[in-house]
Input
Amino acid sequence: MSWEPPSERVRELIREGARLVLNPPPAWLDELDAATLSGPQRSLIAEDPVLAAATRRANRSNLLAWASANVRRPGERVAANVGEVPVAVARDLVRRGLNESALDSYRAGQSEALRRWIQICLTLTADPAELSELLDISCRSISDFVDDTLAALTEVITREREELTQGTHAERRETVSLLMEGAPIPRSRAEQRLGYRLAGRHTAAVVWCDGPRADLAALDRAAELIGTCAGEPRPLSVLASAATRWVWVHGRPDPIRLREAAAARPQIRIAVGSTGEGLDGFRRGHLDALTVQRMLARLASPQQVATHDEVELVALLTSDLERADQFVHRVLGDLAGAPPELTESVRRYIAEQCNVTSAAKSLYIHRNTLLRRLAQADRLLPRPLTQDVVAVGAALEVLRWRGVAADLAV
Output
């Protein structure tokens, strides 16, 4: 122990405060997540949807571990948190080529958690002696808990790096990294290491799992599914993290078939990049697939499958999410909160080059039904549709991928 056991009164105060931590208000968790994912040092984690989601889960795991221990044994040293969630995060960091410095987010989380804990302590007692003892013991406890957890996770990272560098996935990942960086690796050697032909047309994709438990078999099946939908018997699949696969196929997967097949695996998300020739196409397709993945995460989009062709404009429009939401509300007005069948009818009408007959056919509705919906939309729009077709079309595309209209900032 690095401190004397607290008095019985302070033990009860710690237990009382820890119970509050077990059920934190959502705003606390939001601030904790923002602290651990902000700043240039943590941008690589924040921009990766899988790593960002895992970091949020780790935040909650750490809070629960420390608070639960102090409810059971207040004031005693808390064992390092080496449960499933933080260990999975450490392993993913290695698979993404990051090192121990990426664990800096734990320090940021410690600072935010300590700030909140001090606020709790100030509500528990007004006695100066009790408060001094309470803060001294609990601040040491939090600091030692984080130190011990970081030391344990650093060991996990070291072991994982040793294991990963000996496997086939490591060789593939290294080769892909060299190709993406434009390193002068001979094509024949790269193809041998990848087991994949680099000539011809390529389409890249990113397959990942949003949930706390990644189904590795489902990820592998999804990678195979992309190949099937492209007529590619042997897609290239690279383990990017425990919950992510990078995939390349020759040709291009049929997006309709891909959506239908992916629907049977709701825990899987798929971002499809552009299609291009040779090494340039190999590189560009992957970068575009990552752009699609990040856009889906940024918008908290409910869409399971997205292609770069569909969302390139939306990705550009939503790079600044606050301004994108303002654009949607300014252009659509009350139409932004209209029922989905109305907004989708207008979107399809614009996509069909304002051809009522074609749009009604694609929507499987009567022509007169569509005309009534267009008239209703005109009453909700700030300006008539005929005077603002391009802007309304762009805003509706953002709305489609953004998800629930009520989530948009006013």
The first strand starts at residue 201 and ends at 209. The chain has a mean pLDDT of 87. The chain has three domains: 8-164, 199-310, 320-407. The domain at 199-310 is CATH 3.30.70.100 (Alpha-Beta Plaits).
